[in-house]
Design a protein that fits this description.
The complex is a heterodimer. Chain A is built from 37 helices and 44 strands. Chain A is an alpha/beta fold. In chain B, helix 4 packs across helix 8 and helix 11 packs across helix 14. Classes of the chains: A alpha/beta, B mainly alpha.
Chain lengths: 1139, 471
């Protein structure tokens, strides 16, 4: 790999991510140069940015990295960029820099470290220094970088349908602000999104003083902080401290706020290194099948509206003296499938672990369930131990969206300011926001897209002044936020706004006619109050460098509820009887599009849903039994198709219906339907989603969602339309078929037989197979790769001097299936790091997705009957990527030697040599190789819709024959130039962008390995110590994994994490009997069920299937296995045991 | 012939011991020359145009499909992961299999002195050449970057990168190219005396020059014949192992891999038997209409057809046995992945392909136990087509059903061909038919010289034999 060696690494601590240019900044010549050069660049920026010009600016924008930290801390006070006239000191072309920032989420933030390659951000990582982070992120953060380079983002300042200049727009804002001063803000309303930004809170407070009459409202289609409605605080769960966890419809592994932190805690509490280690136990009560339910030791399937009954029943066991709960129990009806022992034993287990237990309530649940959870945590003594309540300040409001609509309809609002969000699309249906919005005289709207809210103004431009301001991405604007533990984090830009966008701080400041109206200054000003003692500039620099303000403590906000409040919360609770004519519908946060905000993000659209594995679609999730009753069906045999249905429900007195495909989901509650939010978006001339998101998903769930049924509703009816619909599902077969691919045991079996995982091997049951000294089957042909290890010569040929293997590094990876929860952050991290293209729905439905790393998900059920199999299944997840086999089957069949082994044990692909016979893929037992069938990097999604793919022979692009364009420039031929110019910016420059006809696959991030080795060589200097320290190289998947399930390292180092894990008795190779000798190995999964529970199974259900098919019990000692257990205690001793 | 020469009485063997002659109705030598050569002479008959124009058009469609595929990507086919080979390699093996009969008939039957081969060997060899050409298209164009396909050849280069000699695909390259070269030489060499006949019969200058060059100065002298026979025998000896090797090596593409359902040692013999089976099926499909249209019933007799039916019966039975043995070993081997692969073939989503294969390949040839069926030419023609369909399904079953469900169930998927897959395949049939029709139109499609040898007039022991009658 050709990489320019990096400069001498700076000390590990301190200025690692920042290059201080203070000295340079102080130099008077430089000052002068900056001042002289700047106006020219700025005047260019005022013009509507031409593409070509924009790219020029882009390439120059690494001035941010080098020059950006001039003067006052981190960046030049003026947020303009400079042509790269002089190289910045310390800047080395090709060496990436890292900047600390954060991604704002609803009322929280994810601290980040963003890689910048030549001035453009290219990869998102978590900030490991942050006190509440292990450097992991979630899927959305990983994918957010693609949103920065989305060519469909709002680019223009538009007033009354006419594009105006930025300056004109800013003037218009100022004029608005001046106008309000006289009226004290009367007839002025603000609608905002949830945000934890202290700066926004400060600005809003200032403005509320200035304009006391103005209305302020916050609207989020999904309120993930339901607990704020109870006690005004956000609970900070310490899952790693909890031994017993009860989730009341709380999908903390998937779709709750800050799930990446919650996963970390959960996974840490589940870590076992030896059989005696304790691990947590998770009880889940839920209606939809969620990742949390899939990871639960005991899962109770009840309709979402019935969770409260279960919660009350459990609470009544734990706090029988509480009369309010007893009353609630009487008020609700427990579903018939709930066994009393489940409730009783679960409650007992919680009580037995008082102080080390935790009850979580999900955001979909009504207030009552949150109250119960709080009561239970208090009763169990968990508060302060496993849960703390943090007062995360929010912008003060005096109205809500319904209030604004009422005022708008009454004609009492002249000026409406919408900051972010997309209410015309996602406001409750009965409010009819689009109509209400048109009643305001002036609408100022800050939006990232020219979306539905933008489109809603198109019809009314005659009477209304609609001012659209393009919103800057968080990677291109200044801001701040507070994470769930109360730590303040900065949001720093890594690039000048690509489309000159503004952020809400600036809009607020301009509207408030404030003196300080640059976001950078605003954030500094806010920070001034929090900075504490010491030199402000130093504190500020440290804040930006570290990416957080250390030492912040969340305000204690553990406010006990009054009896009246509890009664009020319990008052309206009922558990309606559900049937096939009275179905429950549950609106859920989509694992990919969230509430629709990621609609135009191709990575997320193509990210397989962790439960259904569907891509590019929204489904109507339904249980097997309900589907059978209603006569609807979905199938994955042959092509994946499902029945189209019409779902009818009454919303605010109106009967509304949507049409969508049903999907039979194992583990769904009966008579309950799951509806994903965020789909069914269109793109039209007036506004809508972008080219990626348009037309994805048949239904828009917001159409049938009202203020009173934000989370679930009952009374829905479903009818079959008699049509079938094609789906793109990445995993069609959900059963492991009794194959020992994922190996599991209950905790008790693990304690008895620690090396159980090795007993699953196919040959473990075959005593007649000759074994070598390691217990592996003895091959009849010795692979030369291994001959070099042990022999001086082979077949009379001397092997002296032929070192095939490096004696410094031998790379390996260990994936702990007990830690992995299947969230999929790794999938997107891999996609981002390795330039993996998206292929679109049509291609996914043809099984041509390109993900190098996928998460396999298997279900297993008890018994033989279909209902038992599907209704209450157990689920397992397995990240599957190239296994880097030492005896790689792909290598020997490639006729052109394009895939070969390197001396450090990697199975490497020479893309340039590959001719694309695909034989390697056929011979790969894991099917982890991906083939670029149609030039996926160069084609737009429209061109990837079959069955007629556009051929360059006959097609034309931008009015020119594609072949001619190709002749002139083979790179950009098929795509419009503007699209091509911006999309290539997101690519990692360290990784090849593969062309068509070439096989590709996981490389274990070879670019990171090489960078790590180079850095080590530079560091080693004369000492010759070139062995990379353990943990210095992290693969992209490992770095993103919130569960810390993936460990990469040097197998030759006996003390490296990976070596230790691979020596673990849980370690096994998938399909080890093939003698492919994978370098990627897995640690077997351990379940921790409670033997007293009614749904306790003595062995995991997958293993049950294995036992039945193989007629062998892996938990019993084996005679044939020999020393395979390694140091495993007990196994060797029990060698003579009967088989 | 002079009438006063004393005639020698040669007593005929009893009726039941008499072999049916290979040329019926005591057709004289001149008749044979005329009857065969006239097809390539004179204006093209109407039937020829009726067959040629659609074939040519279909070939053009195939060429368009390949241009589309090369310009756009392999994705225009229905391939995917896990089924990364499907119709492409199915068609490749199918065509290669068809290409087996020609060299088998020419070489092995020549060495075994099966005289009945003479009237069909030319057409069968031509069929081989064209079938191997069609076959070659698929591995060539199925690669993702066809412009680099030449990297499969061991060409010395500055980078010192050689092909991977352990890869069966590379063996394929050698096996198929060797087979094609030897078959082509064999075909051409065997045609030289007939080309000379064509030259001598030619009326127009153009034809005289054309056939003259192709005939390589053949005069029919004793010396020429002596050399010719020697060379022919040598080539037959050289070609014989190739008949066995080429399909054995093609079967290694599968047998050497580790895919359950591919990784079996029975493949080489079973593939060779299957290839002969399909090759003879195709010879019948081609020869039966030709003999009717060109009035060659006396040269390609019912006895020829019957003999070929017997070959079909024998090889079909071997194939059927192999199918059964595969299942037995899958069970007996105790490998659950292997067992599943075979159960899945018969009862999985592709059951229809499996049972089509069984019906066509295992059941249909057994009609040929009965003479009644062997001699009913319409029936034989129908079965010959059924055999070809069955053998296509065999390759489809082996390739697609093994790949679509292998080790990890998470990868399992269902393959459906695209319209380009289908038209590329049909296109190669157009190519085959176009070339075959051109061959019939311009070259003697029966071996004039050798048929004469096996005719009664060419038999020195026969009463009509030239040696007795005196010239």
């Amino acid at each position: 790999m050709k990489t320019i060696p990096p400069s001498c690494p700076e000390p590990e601590s301190g200025q690692r991510y920042w290059r201080s240019l203070d000295q340079l900044a102080e130099a008077p010549e430089f000052r002068q140069w900056v001042e002289r050069e700047f106006p020219a660049g700025a005047s260019e920026l005022v013009d509507p940015v031409s593409r070509r010009h924009f790219v020029k600016l882009m390439s120059a924008s690494f001035a941010l990295g080098g020059l950006g930290i001039l003067g006052a801390g981190c960046r030049r006070p003026e947020e303009k960029i400079l042509p790269f006239g002089k190289a910045a000191e310390g800047y080395i072309h090709g060496v990436p820099q890292f900047f600390a920032t954060a991604m704002p989420t609803r009322g929280s933030a994810i601290p980040l470290l963003v890689k910048s390659s030549d001035g453009r951000p290219t990869k998102i990582e978590g900030n490991p220094e942050h006190p509440d982070s292990n450097g992991a992120t979630d899927t959305f953060a990983q994918a957010s970088i693609l949103g920065l380079y989305d060519p469909d983002r709002a680019k223009n300042f538009v007033q009354k349908g006419i594009t105006i200049s930025r300056e004109m727009a800013l003037d218009a804002l100022g004029n608005f602000g001046k106008g309000f001063v006289n009226t004290r803000g009367a007839r002025l309303a603000f609608l905002m999104e949830q945000s934890s930004s202290p700066s926004r809170r400060r600005l809003a407070l200032t403005m509320q003083l200035k304009f006391p009459e103005a209305k302020w409202a916050v609207y989020e289609p999904l309120d993930l902080h339901a607990n704020r409605r109870v006690t005004g605080s956000i609970p900070h769960f310490k899952l790693d401290q909890a031994k017993v966890i009860l989730s009341l419809d709380c999908d903390f592994i998937g779709t709750e706020s800050d799930s990446h932190c919650l996963i970390r805690g959960f996974a840490r509490g589940r870590r076992v290194e030896k059989p005696t280690d304790s691990m947590n136990r998770l009880y889940a009560v839920e209606g939809l099948m969620t990742l949390t339910g899939m990871n639960a030791d005991h899962r109770l399937r009840v309709a979402t509206s019935h969770v409260v009954a279960v919660a009350a029943a459990i609470a009544a066991k734990i706090a029988p003296q509480n009369t309010q709960i007893t009353a609630l129990v009487a008020q609700t009806i427990l579903p018939s499938n709930v066994k009393p022992e489940w409730i009783a034993e679960c409650a007992k287990d919680l009580q037995a672990n008082a102080g080390a237990s935790l009850v979580l309530a999900g955001h979909r649940q009504p207030l009552a369930v949150h109250v119960i959870a709080n009561l239970l945590n208090a009763a169990l003594g968990n508060v302060g131990k496993t849960v703390q309540y943090a007062a995360v300040p929010e912008t003060t409001t005096n109205s809500d969206i319904a209030g604004l609509v009422a005022l708008l309809n009454a004609g009492q609002i002249d000026t409406l300011v919408i900051l972010g969000g997309n209410p015309a699309y996602n406001a409750p249906a009965e409010l009819k926001w689009a109509q209400a919005q048109s009643k305001a005289k002036d609408v100022v709207r800050l939006g990232a897209y020219e979306d539905e809210t933008f489109g809603a103004s198109a019809q009314t431009t005659a009477t209304q002044t609609f001012l659209q301001l393009p919103q800057a991405h968080y990677l291109e604007s200044w801001g701040d936020a507070v994470t769930r533990d109360g730590t303040t984090v900065p949001i720093q830009p890594l690039i000048a706004p690509l489309f000159d966008g503004l952020n809400e701080l600036e809009v607020l400041a301009r509207l408030g006619d404030m003196e300080i109206n640059k976001p950078h200054e605003i954030v500094r000003e806010t920070f001034r109050a929090a900075a504490g003692t010491g030199v402000f500039e130093e504190n500020w620099k440290k804040f930006l460098h570290d990416g957080f303000l250390a030492g912040a403590k969340p305000g204690a906000a553990d406010r006990p509820l009054s009896a009246g409040e509890v009664t009020q919360a319990f008052a309206s609770i009922s558990t309606p009887a559900l049937s096939k004519d009275n179905l429950e519908i549950v609106f859920h946060r989509d694992s990919r599009l969230d509430d629709g905000r990621w609609s135009n993000n191709g990575w997320l659209q193509e990210f397989p849903d962790p439960v259904t594995k569907a891509t590019w679609d929204c489904l109507i999730l339904i249980s097997r039994k309900t589907a059978a009753e209603l006569g609807v069906d979905s199938t994955t045999t042959n092509r994946t198709t499902s029945d189209l249905v019409r779902l009818t429900v009454t919303v605010g007195g109106e009967t509304k219906s949507i049409v969508g495909p049903v999907w039979i989901t194992p583990g769904m509650a009966d008579n309950s339907l799951g509806l994903a939010l965020g789909y069914g978006r269109k793109r039209s001339k007036t506004g809508g989603t972008g080219r990626i998101g348009q037309g994805v998903g048949l239904y828009n769930a917001y159409e049938i969602r009202s203020s009173s049924t934000m989370n679930f509703a009952t009374g829905a009816k479903l009818e079959r339309l008699g049509e079938r619909y094609n789906l793109a599902v990445t995993q069609e077969h959900g059963s492991m078929e009794g194959r020992p691919i994922i190996r599991e045991a209950n905790k008790a079996q693990y304690e008895k037989q620690p090396a159980f995982a090795k007993n699953f091997d196919l040959e473990a049951h075959m005593e007649f197979i000759p074994k070598d000294e390691k217990g592996r089957p003895k091959g009849i042909y010795e692979h030369p790769y291994h001959a070099y290890e042990t022999r001086k010569s082979m077949n009379g040929v001397s092997l002296e001097g032929l070192h095939m293997k490096s004696d410094i590094h031998q790379w390996g990876m260990s994936v702990d299936l007990n830690q992995c929860v299947g969230c999929g952050a790794c999938v997107l991290a891999c996609q981002s790091e390795n330039n993996v293209p998206i292929v679109g729905k049509d291609q996914v439905s043809r099984n041509r997705e390109m993900h190098w790393l996928r998460i396999d998900r298997y279900f297993s059920g008890a018994g033989d009957k279909l209902d038992a199999m599907v209704d209450d299944p157990q689920a397992v997840h397995q990240p599957m990527m190239c296994q880097h086999c030492e005896n790689a089957p792909c290598e020997s069949v490639c006729p052109v030697n394009a895939t070969v082994h390197d001396e450090e044990g990697l199975n490497v692909m020479a893309y340039n040599r590959c001719v694309g016979t695909r034989y390697c893929s056929n011979n790969c037992a894991y099917k982890v190789r991906r083939f670029n069938f149609l030039d996926f990097n160069r084609r737009s999604l429209d061109q990837l819709k079959g069955p007629f793919y556009s051929s360059p022979l006959v097609g034309s692009t931008e009015g020119e024959w594609t072949m001619k364009r190709w002749w002139k420039n083979p790179d950009g031929a098929i795509r419009p130039q503007d699209e091509w110019d911006i999309l290539k910016l997101v690519k990692n420059p360290d990784v090849t962008v593969r062309m068509r006809g070439v096989m590709e696959k996981c490389t274990l991030c070879v670019q990171r390995i090489e960078q790590g080795k180079i850095a080590q060589k530079v560091k080693a200097g004369q000492s010759g110590d070139v062995r990379v320290a353990d943990g210095a190289i992290k693969t992209a998947c490992q770095q993103a994994c919130p569960a810390e399930a993936i460990v990469f390292g040097n197998q030759l180092d006996p003390n490296s994490r990976v070596s230790l894990l691979q020596k673990s008795d849980r370690n096994y190779e998938v399909l080890g009997f093939l003698e492919t000798r994978p370098r990627v190995t897995y640690l077997a999964r351990i379940r921790n069920p409670n033997p007293k529970m009614p749904d306790y199974y003595e062995i995991p259900l997958n293993t049950g299937e294995y036992v039945k098919k193989q007629t062998a019990n892996p938990y019993e000692p084996h005679q044939a296995h020999g020393e395979g257990g390694g140091e495993a205690g007990g196994h060797g001793a029990e060698k003579k045991g009967a088989h | 012939m002079s009438s006063d020469a004393p005639s020698i009485e040669i007593p005929l063997p009893p009726k039941e011991l008499q072999r049916e002659p290979l040329v019926l109705h005591h057709r004289p030598l001149g008749w044979i020359s005329n009857q065969i050569a006239c097809i390539a002479e004179g204006p093209a008959p109407k039937w020829w145009w009726i067959a040629f124009i659609p074939s040519f058009l279909i070939m053009c469609v195939g060429a368009a499909m390949i241009s589309y595929q090369v310009s756009t990507g392999v994705g225009v086919w229905g391939l995917m992961v896990p089924v990364a080979w499907a119709w492409d390699i199915t068609n490749f093996v199918w065509w290669i299999g068809i290409g087996h009969a020609g060299t088998l008939i020419s070489a092995i039957l020549c060495l075994l002195r099966q005289r009945w081969r003479t009237s069909i060997n030319r057409a069968a060899e031509a069929m081989t050449i064209f079938a191997v050409m069609c076959a070659g298209i698929f591995p060539m164009f199925h690669v993702g970057r066809v412009w680099f396909a030449y990297w499969l050849f061991p060409i010395p280069n500055a980078n010192g990168v050689w092909p991977q000699f352990r890869s069966p695909l590379l063996w394929d390259v050698f096996a198929v190219s060797t087979y094609f070269t030897v078959s082509l030489l064999f075909w051409y060499m065997g045609m030289i005396p007939d080309l000379a006949t064509m030259r001598d019969r030619a009326k127009s200058k153009l034809r005289q020059i054309g056939y003259g060059i192709a005939a390589l100065g053949w005069t029919g002298s004793n010396r020429h014949w002596w050399n010719y026979e020697k060379a022919y025998l040598l080539l037959a000896g050289l070609a014989t192992p190739l008949v066995l090797s080429v399909h054995s090596i093609v079967s290694f593409d599968f047998a050497v891999s580790q895919v359950p359902g591919w990784h079996t040692t029975i493949f080489p013999p079973y593939f060779v038997a299957g290839a002969i089976f399909s090759g003879f099926g195709m010879v019948l499909t081609l020869v039966l209409p030709l003999r009717a249209i060109c009035n060659l019933q006396d040269v390609i007799t019912v006895r020829h057809v019957e003999l070929m039916c017997k070959v079909l019966l024998a090889t079909g039975s071997i194939v059927g046995y192999a199918y059964g043995m595969e299942f037995f070993i899958a069970w007996y081997g105790g490998n659950p992945y292997e067992l599943y692969a075979f159960q899945n073939r018969a009862f999985g989503p592709y059951w229809w392909a499996y049972w089509s294969m069984i019906t066509c390949n295992v059941v249909s040839p057994h009609f040929f136990w009965f003479k009644r069926f062997r001699t009913n030419l319409w029936f034989v023609f129908a079965i010959s087509i059924v055999v070809n369909i069955g053998m296509w399904f065999e390759r489809f079953v082996i390739i697609v059903t093994s790949l679509h469900r292998d080790y990890l169930p998470s990868n399992w998927a269902y393959y459906i061909p695209s319209w380009v897959d289908i038209w590329t395949y049909i296109g190669t049939m157009g190519l085959f038919m176009t070339f075959f029709l051109l061959f019939v139109r311009f070259l003697p499609f029966c071996n004039i010289a050798e048929v004469k040898v096996v005719s009664e007039y060419g038999d020195p022991h026969h009463s009509l034999g030239g040696a007795k009658g005196g010239h």
